[in-house]
Amino acid sequence: MNDHPRIPLAGVLGHPIAHSRSPILHGYWLRRYGLKGHYIPIDVAPLDLAEVVRTLPRMGFVGVNVTIPHKEAILQIADIVTDRAALIGAANTLIFRADGKIHADNTDGIGFMANLRQHAPQWQPAAGPAAILGAGGACRAVIAALLEAGVPQIHLANRTRPRAEALRADFGPKVVVFDWTQASGMMEDCATVVNTTSLGMTGKTDLTINLDAINPGALVTDLVYTPLKTAFLTQAEARGCTIVDGLGMLLHQAVPGFERWFGQKPEVDEATRQAVLSA
Ligand code: NAP
């Protein structure tokens, strides 16, 4: 019989995983709050996912984040899936409960909203439609969050139109699909504009889009955070728009997991940003 309290372990499961900034972020918070615990990157091939996830609690893990390519597959393995994770069709945060059940949630939408609230406190989601570029996995969390926040309509354009149509089918008639070639025009009168494509990421081509129709009063944000200020954000800023980069979404989506696993709600502030940027 071992009476020593276990040091909580957490981590992030992905494939590959070396690029993940989550270990830097959680490690920074653990040191900052003087907490006992460890957070490690774990490379898991898709075929091994179920076995690894079932084994982790027996090794002292209290939960994990899940990233590409496991965010959808994990829903089939979890015992309890939150409504928002089910709606989004993906989970990024697992809690290994004391009763042995695996609880799966999606906190990307929380992160997305908290980032905008923090960096654009004057922004009013209900002030007008939102224009969204892209229709991939991250876009589903953004749509769910914006609709919940009271955005009256979503103008959605994706290079592969059927993916956007599928989102309309899932989220209902407030989502209006535009052709990718109409992406510029659909921004007119929108209070919010979001890039959810991977265009603009370091190593990819920039998102080049004509912003003549954009409302200078719009809030413009990009999910891409490497580089921090994408060409798209630079272009929007030149039009007078308020811009918010994507790093805050990454930081804020990590808060619920960290709080649950290590018992302390961590702060997302400039020191946190710098810790992640300078690592
Ligand atoms: P995904 O499921 O692979 O979707 C990629 C999206 O980008 C699709 O809409 C795709 O369009 C579009 N796209 C890719 N190449 C394109 C091109 N050449 N021209 C036009 N559209 C193109 O990826 P995801 O998980 O949604 O992630 C999207 C981006 O968000 C990534 O850069 C990711 O790093 C970032 N992200 C950031 C956070 C954060 O915390 N800030 C969180 C999640 C994701 P098609 O459907 O036509 O392929």
From TrEMBL:
<comment type="subunit">
    <text>Homodimer.</text>
</comment>
<comment type="pathway">
    <text>Metabolic intermediate biosynthesis; chorismate biosynthesis; chorismate from D-erythrose 4-phosphate and phosphoenolpyruvate: step 4/7.</text>
</comment>
<dbReference type="InterPro" id="IPR022893">
    <property type="entry name" value="Shikimate_DH_fam"/>
</dbReference>
<feature type="domain" description="Quinate/shikimate 5-dehydrogenase/glutamyl-tRNA reductase">
    <location>
        <begin position="130"/>
        <end position="197"/>
    </location>
</feature>
<keyword id="KW-0560">Oxidoreductase</keyword>
<dbReference type="InterPro" id="IPR041121">
    <property type="entry name" value="SDH_C"/>
</dbReference>
<feature type="binding site">
    <location>
        <position position="223"/>
    </location>
    <ligand>
        <name>NADP(+)</name>
    </ligand>
</feature>
<feature type="binding site">
    <location>
        <position position="83"/>
    </location>
    <ligand>
        <name>NADP(+)</name>
    </ligand>
</feature>
<comment type="function">
    <text>Involved in the biosynthesis of the chorismate, which leads to the biosynthesis of aromatic amino acids. Catalyzes the reversible NADPH linked reduction of 3-dehydroshikimate (DHSA) to yield shikimate (SA).</text>
</comment>
<feature type="binding site">
    <location>
        <begin position="20"/>
        <end position="22"/>
    </location>
    <ligand>
        <name>shikimate</name>
    </ligand>
</feature>
<keyword id="KW-0521">NADP</keyword>
<keyword id="KW-0057">Aromatic amino acid biosynthesis</keyword>
<feature type="binding site">
    <location>
        <position position="92"/>
    </location>
    <ligand>
        <name>shikimate</name>
    </ligand>
</feature>
<feature type="active site" description="Proton acceptor">
    <location>
        <position position="71"/>
    </location>
</feature>
<dbReference type="InterPro" id="IPR011342">
    <property type="entry name" value="Shikimate_DH"/>
</dbReference>
<dbReference type="Pfam" id="PF18317">
    <property type="entry name" value="SDH_C"/>
</dbReference>
<dbReference type="Pfam" id="PF01488">
    <property type="entry name" value="Shikimate_DH"/>
</dbReference>
<feature type="binding site">
    <location>
        <position position="225"/>
    </location>
    <ligand>
        <name>shikimate</name>
    </ligand>
</feature>
<feature type="binding site">
    <location>
        <position position="246"/>
    </location>
    <ligand>
        <name>NADP(+)</name>
    </ligand>
</feature>
<dbReference type="InterPro" id="IPR013708">
    <property type="entry name" value="Shikimate_DH-bd_N"/>
</dbReference>
<feature type="domain" description="SDH C-terminal">
    <location>
        <begin position="246"/>
        <end position="275"/>
    </location>
</feature>
<dbReference type="InterPro" id="IPR006151">
    <property type="entry name" value="Shikm_DH/Glu-tRNA_Rdtase"/>
</dbReference>
<keyword id="KW-0028">Amino-acid biosynthesis</keyword>
<feature type="binding site">
    <location>
        <position position="67"/>
    </location>
    <ligand>
        <name>shikimate</name>
    </ligand>
</feature>
<feature type="domain" description="Shikimate dehydrogenase substrate binding N-terminal">
    <location>
        <begin position="12"/>
        <end position="94"/>
    </location>
</feature>
<comment type="similarity">
    <text>Belongs to the shikimate dehydrogenase family.</text>
</comment>
<feature type="binding site">
    <location>
        <position position="253"/>
    </location>
    <ligand>
        <name>shikimate</name>
    </ligand>
</feature>
<dbReference type="Pfam" id="PF08501">
    <property type="entry name" value="Shikimate_dh_N"/>
</dbReference>
<feature type="binding site">
    <location>
        <position position="108"/>
    </location>
    <ligand>
        <name>shikimate</name>
    </ligand>
</feature>
<dbReference type="InterPro" id="IPR046346">
    <property type="entry name" value="Aminoacid_DH-like_N_sf"/>
</dbReference>
<dbReference type="GO" id="GO:0004764">
    <property type="term" value="F:shikimate 3-dehydrogenase (NADP+) activity"/>
</dbReference>
<feature type="binding site">
    <location>
        <begin position="158"/>
        <end position="163"/>
    </location>
    <ligand>
        <name>NADP(+)</name>
    </ligand>
</feature>
<dbReference type="InterPro" id="IPR036291">
    <property type="entry name" value="NAD(P)-bd_dom_sf"/>
</dbReference>
<feature type="binding site">
    <location>
        <begin position="134"/>
        <end position="138"/>
    </location>
    <ligand>
        <name>NADP(+)</name>
    </ligand>
</feature>
<protein>
    <recommendedName>
        <fullName>Shikimate dehydrogenase (NADP(+))</fullName>
        <ecNumber>1.1.1.25</ecNumber>
    </recommendedName>
</protein>
